[in-house]
Amino acid sequence: MELPGFIMNPIGDIFGSLEGISFGILSIIAIGGALGTVYSKRVAHSMLALIMCFFAVAGVFLLANAEMLAAIQIPVSYTHLRAHETRHDLVCRLLLE
Asked: What's the predicted TM-score (pTM) here?
């Protein structure tokens, strides 16, 4: 009795295609962004990590052929970040514009 190829070589089957490699890279970016959001000591760094995580999740949605979810992910993440701005963030944004 032979075992299926996935059990014998799971890494080769998953990362054997361009979609598998893209999924691996995007998932590492999403996990890194999530960890950066939680463990950043500065609020600005935490927000940048959260944006990175949101874009990586949108990329995973695109890989899953869920273009509508990917398109909705970006404005939802933008409004989420805008809702949690403080006065200091608004002043910094106005000075940079």
From this structure: 0.67
